[in-house]
Amino acid sequence: MSLVDSFEKIPVQIFADDKIASAHVAREIADLIRQKQKEGKPCVLGLATGSTPKTLYKELVALHRHQGLSFKNGITFNLDEYYPIEPNALQSYHRFMNTHLFDHIDIDKSNTHVPDGTIDKNDVRAYAATYEKKIELAGGIDYQVLGIGLNGHIGFNEPGSGRHSGTRLVALDNTTRLANAYEFTSIAQVPRLAITVGINTILKARKIVLLGWGIHKAPVIRKSVEGTVTDHVPASFLQEHPNCSFVLDEGAAQELTRFKTP
Ligand code: GLP
Q1: β pairing state of 12-15 and 208-212
Q2: In angstroms, what CA-CA distances link 241 with 42, 51, 137, 154?
Q3: Pocket lining: 175 vs ligand 1, CB cutoff 6 Å
């Protein structure tokens, strides 16, 4: 590791663009799925939504269609869902996952899990505990995919989320609602709440890969990778994970010290 790279407290891999980066991550996931198949075991994937992982899901669908990659041993747990929201609503993450991945691969849909945005408010606590339990019973997450919000959120763990937080109902930051307003007709339509797995839930995964594309993500990527670990930047908690890496395009990497101060 060079002197400059030593500013980085999380391993970073940089690719020319999001497509090449996504193909790399898709191959890694495919290798893991096949290895687990050989061992006769399920492969437990933690999945994210948002614009970032769309290219990854395209690559996974292509591997299924053209290279016979089977997801029959796949078990998936999504990070989050708006609350309240119906699963068939245009902006629901249930619908997102079906549209971008599950409808196009051979996964058993009963093995896919996305937090339920229709649960009664009084039942959310118990529901959240059950979601955590289901992850545990599946054997824990083998490979967790993450995106990152402009304020450093992972899942919907907004700034202020604690290192030991678990699955729960959270209030969305107005900056997040603004960033996601493009999915809705106006910001007023963006739900104020969401169900998200916690920072602790994420950190229990055996491997974590955070994807970041575009220069708009570069400042928060730098804070997460080089800054101090703080709940002001929830993604900085990933520095405490022994097997986490950031996969970036050139734009998202450009604020790293190694480029800023070569
Ligand atoms: C969304 C999701 C996150 C996602 C992030 C970034 O609201 N809840 O899981 O990583 O915000 O979104 P995007 O990939 O669209 O930039």
Answers
A1: unpaired
A2: 23, 25, 22, 14
A3: no
SS3 string, 167-198, reads CEEEECCHHHHHHCHHHCCCHHHCCCEEEECC
pLDDT of residue 5: 59
Task: Give me the count of residues in the chain.
Answer: 262
In whole angstroms, give the CA distance from residue 1 to residue 5: 6
- Decide if 135 contacts 201 (C-beta within 8 A): yes
Residue of 180, 209, 215 best suited for mutating to test ligand 1, as the one with most atoms within 8 Å of CB: 180
pLDDT per residue over 63-118, tens digit each?
999 999 999 999 999 999 999 999 999 999 999 999 999 999 999 999 999 999 99
DSSP secondary structure string for all residues of 91-115:
T-HHHHHHHHTGGGS---GGGEE--
Handedness of CA 81, 82, 86, 91 (dihedral sign): negative
Residues lower than pLDDT 70 in the chain: 1-5, 262
Contact 30, 43 (CB under 8 A): no
